[in-house]
Write a structure and sequence with these properties.
The complex is a heterodimer. Helix content of chain A is 48%, strand content 19%. Chain A is α+β, with helices and mostly antiparallel strands. In chain A, the strands form three sheets. In chain A, strands 6-5-4-3-7 form a five-stranded antiparallel β-sheet. In chain A, strands 8, 9, 10, 11 and 12 form a five-stranded antiparallel β-sheet that branches. Chain A has a two-stranded antiparallel sheet with strand order 1-2. Chain A is elongated. By secondary structure, chain B is an alpha/beta fold. Chain B is built from 16 helices and eight strands. In chain B, strand 7 and strand 8 form a beta hairpin. The chains are: A alpha+beta, B alpha/beta. Chains A and B meet through helix 6 and helix 7 of A and helix 13 of B.
């Protein structure tokens, strides 16, 4: 036990938690009392409302601007979480600055309380917020990117302070806590680019004309209305075999990340039609259990 | 005979032609209505020896049949083109125009392009072909077509100087810039179309309407505050296309209006239809149905006709006796729109 301040003696271990304000006499507390009155509270409330409205306006304006152009959509959307963060950070400073005109002692006390609170279980929330800040600055992915995390694959639609929202191909909105993006492996399919590689797959029976089949798959990809081809974005067909069938795996880029599944569906549909026309046999799925 | 080209382009083409070897192959590439037909006709008279000009249908049939490949029929053609291998063999120089009609963007639609590449690889005579610029860009990205030619002449888009020369010759006007200034002065005193429309309803009703009017005012402010000349603006609006330049000049000086339609208001599938029209320059409704495969987008005749009607109402395309084409006035907007959609590379 140490100290003999206004609250009497306190255990030594409490010092680690910042409860040392009690050791000081009122004369030693040279900071003026915190001036929190109705005006302050009202000002804080107005600041919060203004910040919220500004965030909504900025989000609306940037989202509208991004939807008007495919070329810059992802770049513009990537700015949105940063803008939100800046607005809220400024609001926090405006609110806390005059209200919490803290002395060193008060800051230490606050840190002690904060440490206790973290220890009491809101550490996950704090981890998410830190994760959100890290995502904004490090940018492992941006709004508009297609990412795979936690078994989910979808387009990042919003990076919040606590969580990141993905929209999957089935139009499900998944909310992933931000700390998951720091601790888990994240696969980013396009990293801010408009184009993204799609991999349509088809299977054929063994013994088919492989050259013709590959040619059909390649032509289906390059003739798709969603494809994007350049020197840096070539079109390829890969052949893999299993005892049961042969897999033709196409690799091509789409001109917009949102066309990924439409492209794959378009290619598969036309390839299967062409296979039938040219007598190229596809595996009979009814016999698969026997083959396996 | 097609649109003539400006003298500087003609001189550059002449130089290319002079340097072409006897068994050389050349591709002339240009935007629609930008003079490649005229250049091809000039090549026919300029080349020595016996020249023979083929349509893409006939030539495609000859080379594909010769290679014993089952060629997909070219667009709009019935079975069996005219001419045969003998016609090719007898000529010293072969000329084939509008070669973009040799391909269709679907499985099996590249056979005649492949056959052409075989033909060019083994030919011992001069071959000069012409291509739509956008079809050429697509084909050279997805095939090795560009490697098959000894020379590629791309007709440059008109700059301000070229536009001035063209307008002086075409309209017998000494100072096109001054003529356009008069239009611009008149236009600045008029209210934007949108504002007139909205105000005729009594008030600007929606946030979207207010934003639209504000945007138009900002655009006009930008145009009047920059040092860009009216001719520069015209060339930019026309995307350097000669016919578009002439049409817009006509509208602006004789009718006192901009001449361009609004930006296309279309879905992605409809944008693809515009791509087909841009690369083929003119298609019938039946040909569009054949090219737009079922399953995705407007694939039935009725749906395509509805889309064409929608585009006609927006003044983007014209429908003339079953033939659909992009209006020259809308050319710059269509190119810009398709670039934003990343359908043009």
């Amino acid at each position: 036990m140490v100290g003999a301040g206004i609250l009497g003696s306190v255990p030594t271990e409490w010092l680690a938690l910042g409860f040392d304000v009690a050791l000081q006499t009122p004369e030693e507390l040279d900071a003026p009392p915190v001036d929190v009155d109705a005006t302050t509270v009202f000002g804080a409330a107005v600041t919060i409302v203004v910040a919220y409205v500004l965030v909504r306006i900025a989000t609306f304006a940037l989202t509208s601007a991004s939807e008007r152009t495919v070329e810059y959509r992802i770049t513009i959307k990537a700015v949105i979480p940063l803008v939100k963060f800046v607005i809220y950070a400024v609001a926090l400073v405006v609110i806390l600055g005059p209200v919490l005109d803290l002395t060193t002692t008060q800051i230490l006390a606050f840190s002690g309380l904060l440490g206790a609170a973290l220890g009491l279980g809101i550490k996950d929330l704090f981890a998410n917020v830190v994760g959100g800040i890290a995502i904004v600055f490090e940018r492992p992915y941006n709004t508009g990117d297609k990412v795979a995390i936690d078994g989910h694959y979808g387009e990042v639609t919003e990076v919040g302070l606590r969580s990141t929202k993905l929209v999957t191909n089935d139009d499900d909105e998944i909310s992933v806590p931000n700390y998951r993006f720091i601790t888990e492996t994240v696969a980013n399919a396009n990293s801010g680019a408009n184009e993204l590689m799609a991999v349509p797959e088809v299977h054929i029976e063994h013994g088919q004309d492989l050259t013709q089949a590959k040619g059909i798959v390649r032509q289906a990809m390059v003739s798709s209305r969603y494809v994007y081809v350049s020197e840096d974005h070539p079109v390829r067909v890969r052949v893999d075999t299993t005892p049961a069938y042969v897999t033709l795996r196409g690799r091509a880029y789409v001109n917009d990340v949102r066309h990924e599944f439409a492209f794959e569906s378009d290619v598969r549909e036309r390839v299967l039609e062409a296979f039938e026309e040219h007598g190229i046999e596809t595996p009979d799925v009814t016999t698969w259990p026997e083959r396996e | 005979m097609g649109e003539p080209v400006v003298p500087s382009t003609f001189d550059a083409f002449e130089e290319h032609l002079e340097h072409l070897p006897e068994d050389g192959t050349m591709a002339i590439v240009s935007d629609p209505w930008a003079g490649r037909e005229w250049l091809l006709d000039h090549a026919e008279t300029a080349l020595e020896g016996q020249t023979r000009t083929f349509s893409p249908f006939d030539f495609g049939h000859i080379i594909a049949t010769d290679l014993e490949e089952v060629a997909d029929e070219p667009l709009g053609e019935t079975t069996g083109g005219s001419g045969d291998r003998a016609d090719v063999s007898e000529a010293d120089a072969i000329l084939v125009g509008d070669c973009e009609r040799l391909f269709q963007r679907r499985i099996g639609g590249f056979d005649q392009v492949v056959a052409l590449q075989h033909e060019l690889a083994r030919t011992d005579r001069t071959v000069v072909t012409s291509w739509n610029q956008y079809a050429w860009s697509y084909l050279t990205s997805v095939t090795t077509l560009a490697d098959s030619f000894d020379a590629v002449f791309e007709v440059p888009r008109l700059d301000v100087e070229g536009a001035e020369t063209l307008l002086r010759e075409r309209y017998d006007v000494e100072a096109p810039e001054r003529a356009l200034e008069t239009y611009a002065e008149q236009a600045d005193t008029e209210e934007p179309q949108t504002e007139l429309l909205l105000e005729s309803e009594g008030r600007l009703q929606t946030m979207r309407g207010r934003v639209q009017v504000l945007w138009e005012r900002l655009q006009r402010l930008y145009r009047t505050s920059t040092v860009e000349s009216h001719l520069e603006r015209l060339v930019k609006d026309a995307h350097g296309n000669p016919r578009t330049i002439c049409r817009l000049f006509d509208h602006r000086t004789n009718e006192g209006r901009d001449g361009r339609p609004d930006k296309p208001d279309v879905e992605y599938e409809e944008s693809y239809l515009l791509w087909l029209l841009l690369t083929n320059e003119q298609l019938t409704v039946e040909e569009l149905v054949e090219l737009l495969e079922p399953g995705v987008g407007p694939s039935t005749q009725g749906a395509i006709e509805t889309t064409i009607r929608k585009l006609t109402r927006q003044d983007i395309v014209s429908l003339d006796d079953e033939n659909v084409s992009i209006r020259p006035e809308a050319f710059g907007l269509v190119v810009s729109h398709l670039q934003k959609r990343r359908l043009l590379w």
